[in-house]
Amino acid sequence: MAVKQGQTTSVLPAQSPSEKPDASTSDDPPYLEVAGVIAFNFFSSTGIVSANKLVFQGGFGFAVTLTFIHFVCTTLGLLLLARLGVFTPKRLDIRKAFKLAVAGTGFVVFSNLSLKHNSIGFYQVMKHMTVVGVVIIEALVFRKFLSTTFLGALATMCVGVLITGATDFRLNAVGTLFALANILCTSFYQIWCGSLQKSLEANPLQLQLYIAPLSALSIIPVLPIFDNYSPYSPDSIFHFAPTTRNVSSILLTGALALCVNVSIFLLIGKTSAVTYNVVGNGKTAFLFCVDFLIFRRPFEPANVFGMALTLAGVVWYTQLKLKARAEAEKAEKSSAS
């Protein structure tokens, strides 16, 4: 995703996983195929976060330029997949797609900037605050209110994030501002993405084929604002010393960005809503472990408790959401019959 977001700040969010029923049928795909799809999504989604962090720590500190590279790689990859017949492109209203592309650009740019300036643990818990952002925006802008049943889960998430942030060893004002900006952009992106897919009747890959190149174009004017493009500065991108290792790492993140988009599409199509959300929660737990084991995050009990509380809130919210969706579908079937 380009990188997501998470939700992890996927790269680009796909359509809701609720479209496929949870009950097993005789037409279910083979277990090995499902396992392969789950593994593909899990390792590409967690891999891109870790790979981006390594690129930043390796000396390439140009987060917005890296985002631009991700969008270019995603565009080229989607064109190749369309050529191979993986999906069929669809002509869409470019004006509607451009609005989503701008929001998507903001969400991916601020996601990478948040990852650059924050620890993986704080980056990940702040990504989950997108749920709260969506709830607030829908209430204030669209007058759509969430049931009080979900308030306990949301409160648990918020308390967990506050504890994690207050005890984070890399807490800083710049990183926090980028994380908050990421929540705002991602919230609007997810709201518009869901409504636009329905109105255009397009699947995620068809929509992304428009969004990725438009996002790449819209990000060009802001490159000199966030990254150093001054030819006279020793820290500018023009003085970055490319090596086989760091160029390969950058291109790897671009390939992973494409893999994340494709794997989300495959996971939604091959499994159920429960599987999709369980895998998502598993990715969060895994990234917490990566932060401690690979990036040497200091072990502090209060900080670990904050992360665990956030994850517990996410799991609680997910279960309530799935239950509410199942009840709504059951009621809809009953009224139809």
Automatic annotation (TrEMBL):
It comes from the Eukaryota. One of its GO terms (cellular component) is membrane. The chain crosses the membrane at residues 60-85, 97-115, 121-142, 149-167, 173-195, 207-226, 246-267, 274-295, 301-320. It is found in: Membrane. Signal peptide: none annotated. This is Solute carrier family 35 member E3. The keyword Transmembrane helix applies. Keywords: Membrane, Transmembrane, Transmembrane helix. Residues 1-27 have a biased composition (Polar residues). Residues 1-28 are annotated as: Disordered. It comes from Gracilariopsis chorda. The lineage of its organism: Eukaryota, Rhodophyta, Florideophyceae, Rhodymeniophycidae, Gracilariales. InterPro entries: EmrE-like, Sugar_P_trans_dom, TPT_transporter. Residues 35-317 form the Sugar phosphate transporter domain. It is a multi-pass membrane protein. Its main location: membrane.
